[in-house]
Specification:
16% strand, 3-stranded antiparallel beta sheet, 7 strands, 35% helix, globular, alpha+beta, two-stranded antiparallel ribbon, 5 helices
């Protein structure tokens, strides 16, 4: 088996000090990564998969019910509102797609110089889900977590 080219996204960020001081010079590289991630997600829209709608929807409802039990009660109304709206994404008109289950900064491979996405690894948690369930991975490209908590990368206009 051949090794995919590139470095993990987190390694590339550390190499370019992205987490310490995001500068205008780093914007093109970051823009390439975000653009390629968007293309990666969009490609799945073109390859819809069959899904056991009721079983998958039941898993989502179970997860939302767990959140309602475990989180502070002030979140319960919103959790129930979202849970009751699941029919929107579980229709024949809305595609279910192969979804990566762990789009963290260690599972994106990028070219450290250009920022272009070269691969996505660790598909152990992949499953067929309604399109968009992996969109949370974008957050990992727009900020980072450190000892002080979550920080968003500073946004700069295109040079």
């Amino acid at each position: 088996m051949e090794k995919l080219p590139g470095a993990t996204y987190i390694e590339a960020c550390l190499q370019h000090n992205v987490y310490e001081a995001f500068s205008p010079e780093q914007y093109p590289r970051q823009s390439n990564t975000v653009t390629d991630f968007a293309k990666f997600l969009a490609a799945s829209w073109k390859s819809p998969q069959d899904i056991d709608t009721e079983s998958t929807k039941a898993k989502f409802i179970e997860r939302f019910n767990m959140l309602a039990r475990e989180l502070l009660s002030r979140f319960t109304p919103r959790i129930h509102e979202i849970s009751n709206s699941l029919d929107i994404v579980f229709t024949a008109d809305y595609p279910s797609v192969l979804t990566h289950g762990d789009l963290c900064e260690m599972n994106f491979l990028v070219d450290p110089q250009s920022g272009h996405l070269t691969g996505v690894i660790d598909w152990a948690e992949a499953e067929i889900l309604p399109f968009g369930c992996a969109l949370w991975g974008l957050k990992n490209l727009l900020g980072f977590m450190d000892g002080a908590g979550w920080s968003w990368l500073a946004l700069f206009p295109r040079p």
